[in-house]
Amino acid sequence: MFATRWTTERPSDSAYFGLVLASMVMMAIGLGLVTAPSTGAILAVLPLGKAGVGSAVNDVTRELGGTFGVAVVGALFSSVYGPSLALLLHGAGVPAPVLATAQPPSLPTTPGSKPGRDILSELSKP
Q: What's the pLDDT score for residue 110?
């Protein structure tokens, strides 16, 4: 958590290569210090005949957690990034055809529901 907080609190004009490398090394060390003892603790409470099953369950839960974590963070990031990008590009004087490609697609709607927000039409209003 320290590495993530350290990375997010840096100013935008700071050098990224050293910062990213250092934070990734700190995160890897932290994960290494947590993953091995937790796997050992899980396998220590199982009988020897069930060690393979315990190891497999541990691996599957770790992989599913990583997969769902990336999916959730990706969904949150794209829901915030897309609209913000279109607004920032509009303020920078980007031509309308280019701006249209930066606009996130509208979500499919069901009958009777309101359509998704159209950022370009909102920006063109006086």
A: 52
Structure tokens at 64: 């599913």
Residue 54, burial from CB neighbour count under 10 angstroms (0-12, 13-18, 19+): middle
Q: For residue 102, give every residue at least 6 positions away whose Cβ sits within 8 Å of its Cβ, in sequence order, or none.
A: 82, 85, 86, 89, 94
- Output the six-digit token pair for 60: 């599957």
Where are the chain's structural domains? 1-45, 50-104+118-126
In the three-class reduction of DSSP (H, G, I as helix; E, B as strand; rest coil), residue 55 is classed as helix
Task: Compute the radius of gyration of the chain from its Cα atoms.
Answer: 23
Q: Which residue carries 């994960």 as its tokens?
A: 31
Dump pLDDT digits (tens) for 6-59: 767 777 677 767 777 888 888 889 888 998 898 999 899 999 999 999 999 999
pTM of the predicted model, to two decimals? 0.52
